[in-house]
Amino acid sequence: MIGQDDKVLRVGLLPLGFFFCLLFVFPLGMFLWTSFTVKTDTSTVLTLQHYVDVLTSDSARAALVTTLLLSVVTGVVSLLLGYLLAYQVARRGPVLSKLIFMAAIASLFTSTIARALGWRVLLAYQGPINGVLVGLGIVSEPLQLINNFTAVAIGMIHIQTPIVMLALIPVIEALPKDLERAAIGLGSSRWRAFVSIHLPITWRNAVPIGLLTVMATASYFTTPVLLGGGRVDVMAIQIQQASQVLFDFGYAAALSVVLVAVIGVIAFLVFLSTNWRRGAAARGGS
Amino acid sequence: MSTLEIEKLRIVYGKYVAVDGLDLTIPHGQLVSLLGPSGSGKTSVLRAIGGYLPPTSGTIKVNGRDITRDPPQVRDMGMVFQNFLLFPHMSVLDNVEFGLRMRQVSRAERRRRAMETLDMVRMSAFAARLPFQLSGGQQQRVALARALVIRPAILLMDEPMGALDAKLRAEAQEEIRAVQKEVGVTAILVTHDQQEAMAMSDRIVVMRDGAILEEGEPGRLYREPRTAFTAEFLGTTTLLPVEVLGGEGGRCRVRHSTSKHEFLATGDLRAGEAASVSLRPEEILCSHEATADSIAGRVTKRMFYGVNTFLRVETSEAGSLLALEAPGAVMGEGTGVHVSWRSEGARVLPRDPS
Amino acid sequence: MKRLSLAFDSLVCGLMGVLTAVTVLFLVMPLIVVVLTSFNPTTVTFPPRVWSLQSYAVIPKVAIDAFVRSLILGVLSAALSVLLCVPAAIALVKARVPGRPFIEMALRSPLQFPAIILGVAFLQYYFFWQHKLSLPLVGTFWGLLIAHTVYTFPFVLVPIIARLSAPGARLEEAAAGLGAGTLTTVMRIVIPLLRPGIVAGMFTGFVMSFEDVAVTMFLVGSNMTTFPVYLLGNAEVSNTPSLYASASLGALVALALVLLVERFFGLRTVLGKG
Questions:
Q1: What is the per-residue pLDDT across A26-46, written as a single tens digit (0 to 9) for each?
Q2: What is the tens place of the pLDDT at every residue in A191-243?
Q3: Number of folded domains that form chain C
Q4: CA distance, residue C92 to nearest chain B CA (Å)
Q5: Does residue C96 lie in a domain region?
């Protein structure tokens, strides 16, 4: 601060810094250390055994695949739906805009568990959705919509869509409404105005958000547990079982490192995509 | 009642020299303007005086006491910022009382002095309002009150009219000047607006590229500038490139560099010097009839500004001139005119190298 | 424009409208279903054949306790986070701190870690200290509070830093010129103007704490559990209407909070990126 003493201000960083080191860096460091060690009766030995176990375990590999698949599917679908909703909120009149916004917010602030319970009812074998499908003659028999990958995907999309919408609203609002009106005034159809003017400018912001959604989905635990019925094994569940059921912290730690590594790779992609966007803007935008 | 002395003030940012060895003395009770284009270093000087910018070298003294290294809190100066910097979460009264609160003035006394100062700027009716509820002009008056209530040794103003629109500016200039005189506080005003400087100041310090070019009383600077830059910066003028042929007793014979037209001008330059002659519009006489030393010209543009009308006159002997139309003597575009001026109205000045 | 493309255009826009409506329905349906299902008296059917509020009456005391505990944990961890984050944010934004970008990145990094990993790491960490200091941590309120504060503080820090970094008048200069020292300026000028950021931070922090399962589930004890962990445990093994009743109540509280924030602060500003 100009005119003031910076030294006094810097002290303010100490409590949080201390707290952070003692209660975040140390626990994670210890956990990381555990992934590289095995305790015998007499000593602690450095080893890569845990990682070997992870990479050779069928269930771990399957869990990784499931996690990635779930994350990508969720990322793509919630990006599309979230973009649609954000567009409506940003462009429609105040009443409609607020309605859609509040619906998304209501969904967002209902607990993950409550939402999953709701889906459990909706997707049940004899539940309302199957009832409608069979009743309308779309299918002859109820579909297995619960306790499988589909259910978990639906649940995760349900969770991420409002978040994506929130993130995209400022992006779309940054574009003046009149831009599309100008195009329409010059003879373009609404659809083409959207595709040729709106989309090119905003999609570069949308990609990092989509990738962030992928990252976030990879971390989730509650929804896969409640909607997967034990059959959808994601990395988070593997980690939980390794620690709470098997008490094998080394294995759990190794699994965690692998998960973080995967998320890290996606984070790197986010970094690339945002910088590539900034680079393009610096070069005059294309 | 305080005097300010600045000696050899130097402010350097990395390789960029913002202020280059500046010396300035401001006697008590005067309002002095630091006038110059952006980049002239005037704001840096003000901020250094206020304590917001530690100088690279040099000293600043108030009443003989060296305050160069003092933090702003102890400098006993009141500052009015360009965007006012009123505390948005505090009422007008709280804003004005803030400085007094910092000085541990008792509540009753605070209230009294704050209301008194608000009265002086005619804002006491707004004491309970919040800054966002005030117009630009009103905010400025509150900012002034806040700076003055602490009875500072020196009042500093950083382009205080910058955020106001043109009409308000004139009013505000009058008001600030009136208050400053009433209180009798030494004041330093930074501005790039030469009209403002001329209207308000006891003295003007013209700055360019981190140094003082000229200083003096507004009238003197306007009528008898010593540099071409000052002539151009204060008011309007036409500068004619000339060579000095010779002169004495305050008069020079000069020759226009392109047309070789010779005439008399006022000034003290030596023969052979490259110079500029400053001709203010009001010194140029345009008439329909020729006189002994008039030159022929044609009005190419007529610019009506209400109070004044300016004429752009193209001549072969003196190039393009800007003249003031005499009231009642309308000269439309395309009119042929005869242009002349008194030698007293043509000031010969050293030519600006840039 | 040709008539065909006009028709096509209307069709596409119409489809988008329908899709929007479907999506909104998609978002809202599960909540409605949960509330409606809770009106079953004994068995879970949808739609309920018998409507009754009985399920609400038989919500076990454990659930209520857990609910209250979650509320307290949420408020306390948000408040603690604010106490830690405000001075830190001021230091980072207003004072010249060497390595500021790295420190900021480090402090934001917990957001990148899956909560489940934090949970397991904490479990291990608590065991370590329990062993070393003979101090119970797992299954205690303080243990939960500490873990929740670590989990929530980045959510609190981000909006506060954003608010401080927002370009605005450098009021500290005016304060200094009027005689205010560093601490006075911070207390009287910087922090009062920080209020929207603090509100946004506390809101987000509370919500994250109230909802957390992945970290908390490792650290609960027999008489010390939180609402979402209780719900999860219950939902995994049983399917009774009072489960839905509990869930509905939880959702109701969250929605009430959202409405309160919207009424007093405006949801958009609180949720905005800065």
A1: 999 999 999 998 887 777 788
A2: 777 888 888 888 888 888 999 999 999 999 999 999 998 889 999 999 999 99
A3: 2
A4: 20
A5: yes
Mean pLDDT value across chain A = 88
Residues of chain B with pLDDT under 70: 1, 354
Closest by CA position to B335, among listed B323, B343, B344, B346: B323
Query: Please, what sign has the CA dihedral across residues B254, B257, B262, B265?
Result: negative
Check CB contact under 8 Å for A31 and C23.
no
DSSP-derived secondary structure letter, A242: I
B291 exposed, middle or buried (CB, 10 Å; 0-12, 13-18, 19+)? exposed
Evaluate the omega torsion of the peptide bond into residue C47 and state whether it is cis, within 30 degrees of 0.
yes
Instruction: With respect to residue C171, please indicate whether it lies within any of the assigned structural domains.
Output: yes
- The domain boundary, picked from B200, B228, B256, lies at B228
- How many whole angstroms separate alpha carbon A51 and alpha carbon A67? 18
CA distance A260 to A239: 12
- Tell whether C189 lies on the interface with B, counting CB pairs under 8 A: yes
Helix, strand, coil percent content, chain C, rounded in steps of 5: 75, 0, 25
Looking at the fold, whether B115 and B214 belong to one and the same domain comes out as yes
- Residues B40, B140, single domain; the answer is yes
A30 touches chain C (CB under 8 A): yes
pLDDT at B354: 67
**Residues 40..79 of A with a Cβ closer than 8 Å to C: which?**
none
Token digits of residue A90: 């940003």
Strand partners for B284: B341
Q: Is C27 on the interface with B (CB under 8 A)?
A: no
CB atoms within 10 A of CB B211: 15
Considering only residues 101 to 120 of chain B, which have any Cβ-Cβ distance to chain C shorter than 8 Å? 102-103
User: Closest to C85 (Cβ–Cβ): which among A16, A218, A259?
Assistant: A16
CATH assignment at residue B157:
3.40.50.300
Domain that holds residue C230: 60-271
The DSSP letter of residue B351 is P
Distance, in Å, from the CA atom of C85 to the CA atom of C153, rounded to the nearest integer, reads: 7
C-alpha of B89 from chain center: 34
Query: B33-47: per-residue pLDDT in tens?
Result: 999 998 899 999 999
Please, are residues A163 and A85 in contact by the beta-carbon 8 Å criterion? no
Residues shown for chain C: 274
Asked if residues A223 and A157 have their Cβ atoms less than 8 Å apart, the reply is no
CATH of the domain at B306: 2.40.50.140
Q: Which domains does chain A have, with CATH numbers?
A: 41-282 (1.10.3720.10)
Report the relative pairing of strands B154-158 and B186-191 from DSSP bridges.
parallel
> Residue B155 belongs to what domain range?
4-228
Residue listed under structure tokens 């004619």: B240
Q: Which residue of C has its CA nearest to A215?
A: C112
| CA nearest neighbour of C218 among A231, A252, A233, A117 | A252
Which of C259, C250, C205, C252 is CA-nearest to residue C226?
C250
Chain B hits for C192, CB-CB cut-off 8 Å, are: 89
Higher pLDDT, A41 or A127: A127
Sign of CA dihedral C73, C75, C78, C79: negative
Are the C-beta atoms of residues B65 and B101 closer than 8 Å to each other?
A: no
In a domain, C103, yes or no: yes
Give the integer Cα–Cα distance in Å for A119 and B199: 76
pLDDT value of position B292:
83
Answer yes or no: do B156 and B276 share one domain: no
What is the mean predicted confidence (pLDDT) over C223-238?
A: 90
Residue to substitute from A2, A5, A7, interface B, most B β-carbons within 10 A? A2
B183 with B115, same domain? yes
d(CA B67, CA B69): 6
Same domain membership, residue C84 and residue C1: no
Residue B338 has phi, psi (to 5 degrees) of -115, 125
For B297, list phi and psi in degrees, rounded to 5: -155, 175
